[in-house]
Amino acid sequence: MLHPNINSLEAFEAKYRRQVDPWDFKFSRYERRRYAATLGALGRAHYLDAFEPGCSIGEFTALLAPRCDRLLATDISLTAARRAVVRCAEFPGVEVKCADIRSELPSGPFELVVFSEIGYYFDAADLGDIATRLAATISGGGEFIAVHWLGHSTDHALHGDEVHDLLRSHLPLEWVCGNRFDGFRIDQWRKLIDTRARDDGRGRHADLTADPDAVELERGARPGLHRQRPLDQVGSEARIVGRLDLRTARLPP
Ligand SMILES: C[S@@+](CC[C@H](N)C(=O)[O-])C[C@H]1O[C@@H](n2cnc3c(N)ncnc32)[C@H](O)[C@@H]1O
Predict the structure, then answer these.
(1) Does the Cβ of 84 fall within 6 Å of ligand 1?
(2) 101: CA distance to ligand 1 center in Å?
(3) In angstroms, rounded to a whole number, what is the distance separating the alpha carbons of residues 110 and 72?
(4) Whether 124 contacts 158, CB under 8 Å
(5) Average pLDDT over residues 237-250
(6) 1 within some domain
(7) Is residue 2 part of a domain?
(8) What is the mean pLDDT of residues 206-235?
(9) Domain carrying residue 210
């Protein structure tokens, strides 16, 4: 049985204090192969705005950054987020924040959300809720990509296959394709562009999905998708709020 605190903020923070790179993201052949497959699966060469929750120490963030004008990366562990800041220092478009995806999400819109090896830390109810809210941050035509290891771990609430099955049933997005690799799988979804959009006066149809709820509501998702605290209302300076959450991971000068 999963220990109730095993996936808490404190548990991840303690993990990063014990080890600089707990999963050996920097040197593991498996991780580098997984990163290459993830980058290879992306639908576009370049994105204006992307979001990577659970960025850890920023190893994948640094690989994704050259393909994005702006990339917001978050992690529940402040120590991890601070390492990600250092790792991505050469990329001015990267912003790293310390935040818990369960309660602190940016409002977007993003052309890309990368949900990589984080889904199995949540129970099914939380994952469904996170999926619905993440989908609401994606702009029309934007992509959601999920990547998860297929092994077993005592600190995972769900197996990688269960994560992707749950995402497939909860994401109010169009599933595009999926692939199984040696040890992990990748699935991709896309947000539909609302073709009911009004004519913009020039004989074209405007993309109404600038309203991120438009497509979801049409497809019957629950209202109130943005009830969580929008992450982008958080100031750019580090704020101590009693716990380790909601702080920009910028290093002191
Ligand atoms: C296994 S690592 C994956 C890192 C990276 N996404 C990758 O694919 O290489 C999982 C990361 O998710 C973070 N994490 C776990 N729960 C989180 C939460 N509720 N909100 C934000 N980050 C979380 C952990 O701190 C950890 O850094």
Answers:
(1) no
(2) 9
(3) 10
(4) yes
(5) 35
(6) no
(7) no
(8) 35
(9) 9-248
Q: Which residue in 177, 103, 153, 166 sits closest to 133, CA to CA?
A: 103
Ligand 1 lined by 116 (C-beta under 6 Å): yes
Distance from the CA of 205 to the center of ligand 1, in angstroms?
39
pLDDT digits (tens, 9 = 90+) for 52-93: 999 999 999 999 999 999 999 999 999 999 999 999 999 999
CATH number of residue 191's parent domain: 3.40.50.150
Q: Which ligand 1 atom is the nearest neighbour of the CA of 13?
A: 25
Q: Is the pLDDT of residue 209 over 70?
A: no
C-alpha of residue 201 to centroid of ligand 1, in Å: 45
Return the beta strands (E) in 4-103 as ranges.
Answer: 47-53, 68-75, 94-98
Residue 77 Cβ < 6 Å to ligand 1: yes
Q: Please check whether residue 253 lies inside any domain of the structure.
A: no
**Tokens at 23, concatenated:** 């999963």
Say what the pLDDT of residue 247 is: 46
Reported pTM? 0.82
| 160 C-beta closer than 6 A to ligand 1 | no
Domain count, the chain: 1
The residue contributing the CA closest to ligand 1 atom 3 is 117
In a domain, 178, yes or no: yes
pLDDT at 6 > cutoff 80: no
pLDDT digits (tens, 9 = 90+) for 145-174: 999 999 999 999 999 999 999 999 999 999
* 58 Ramachandran zone, left/alpha/beta (phi>0; psi -120 to 50): left
Cα(27) to centroid(ligand 1), Å:
18
